[in-house]
Amino acid sequence: xxxxxxxxxxxxxxxxxxxxxxxxxxxxxxxxxxxxxxxxxxxxxxxxxxxxxxxxxxxxxxxxxxxxxxxxxxxxxxxxxxxxxxxxxxxxxxxxxxxxxxxxxxxxxxxxxxxxxxxxxxxxxxxxxxxxxxxxxxxxxxxxxxxxxxxxxxxxxxxxxxxxxxxxxxxxxxxxxxxxxxxxxxxxxxxxxxxxxxxxx
Length: 201
Ligand SMILES: C[S@@+](CC[C@H](N)C(=O)[O-])C[C@H]1O[C@@H](n2cnc3c(N)ncnc32)[C@H](O)[C@@H]1O
Known about the structure:
Shape: globular
Bound molecules: S-adenosylmethionine
CATH class: Alpha Beta
Oligomer: single chain
CATH superfamily: Vaccinia Virus protein VP39
CATH topology: Rossmann fold
Structural class: alpha/beta
Number of helices: 9
Order of helices and strands: HHHHEHEHEEHEHH
Distance between the termini: 30 Å
Number of domains: 1
């Protein structure tokens, strides 16, 4: 069943898609957030992890934390990455689950999906698959995932409650959520909520 969204939600999604299409296709550009290899270093990913990937997997990384600092991933597990971008965390998870496991990256931005699929093929990671979809309507069956990871995405979702409902729908009983995101401790002023640059950053 299609999710009904208010027009402002559609406008916001389009702005987010436009911004992250640029991150995918013009990663050398300056953005008002850190990205790429320097950000991966700041966030504590090991250089062994980063160097195991081709540059195109790293240059469009736009995470805000390191979901793997929350817990480990075991061989054979199924991992879902919500808002997988150019696939950086999916490739780390893909190495961890191994050929007997599965990693599903979901993203709504075609340019990110194209780049991620190309890199997965280059890396020979057949267990890593990318699907087009929304965090609020995941193209993943109920109770099918051992670990949900997400990095810098829920803050971009207009309907955060629905995004979390989807996390719990897709997790198996006893499944884990390794979440890296932005949290505010004070009410966000209306002027800031209306500023699309702040939404998409
Ligand atoms: C800040 S980037 C992070 C990408 C990736 N997790 C990483 O660490 O590099 C946000 C990504 O989430 C995607 N995204 C944002 N809102 C989304 C939504 N509601 N549903 C699916 N994807 C979304 C964007 O297209 C973009 O690729």
